[in-house]
Amino acid sequence: MSEDSGSRRGLMKAAMNAPFLGREEEMELAVRWKSRDDEVALHRLAQAHMRLVIAIAARFRHYGLPMSDLIQEGHVGLLEAASRFEPEREVRFSTYATWWIRASIQDYILRNWSIVRGGTSSAQKALFFNLRRLRAQLSQTLGSGVGAAAIHQHIAQTVGVAVADVAVMDARISGADVSLNAPAFESEDGGAAERMSQLVDAAPRPDDVVQDAIDSDRRARWLNEAMQVLSPRERSILAARRMSDEAATLECLGAELGISKERVRQIESRALEKLRKELVERQAIDVAALI
Known about the structure:
Distance between the termini: 78 Å
Helix content: 55-70%
Order of helices and strands: HHHHHHHHHEEHHHHH
Largest sheet: 2 strands, antiparallel
Number of domains: 3
Strand content: under 5%
CATH topology of the largest domain: Four Helix Bundle (Hemerythrin (Met), subunit A)
Structural class: mainly alpha
CATH architecture of the largest domain: Up-down Bundle
């Protein structure tokens, strides 16, 4: 028997052997702790309700986390409930503590179930903790022939979230986290290739980068040489209209040069035609990419 299993058995045995508290005795202990910070009263109150902590923790054991950790987090919620309990409201402490115990355990599961944090909103938390149950119920109600899309649609309407959120959460719950450093398969030399080595790099290959740089330099040289056939005014208009990050308007250029915007358009059109002709003569085939 492991140490963890032994300590859990001892905790459960102690919890089951703890005496039940009557309403008056429970209220008396709560008042003593609330008004006088009586730690003995707190200990008795917590000990008597540890079986409640264990029962709630057992409902979440299928999330794959250690039962002892769930019980410990539930105990934290129990103590939080004790610190916030107001005896004058005349509500049973167990009723009040149930919410805090469950909330503490659920928060622990959300923080530790996956390295990817999820369930940040109340709707997403409800989806995370009810998805399996709702999916099983709908599969029985709608039949085995119903597809996942229809089930996701019903769950989204029930919980009040988007269908896409249901699909993402379903995929996350269905598969555990996998490290990119975990071996994907054994290579021919006997080593183990990591999953990281199987990821597709979206960056261009080095030879493509070099080829693009050479082509860009060649096109820039052709364009600069072809621009020499234009007049100074044609070059300035073409540069302002076609070779600037923010293209100048015909009105602005017309006001700057002292001519009408229609005249600017005519000069631009004539300059483009002269430039195309010069580039074709220089055998620069991809004219559209240059201008």
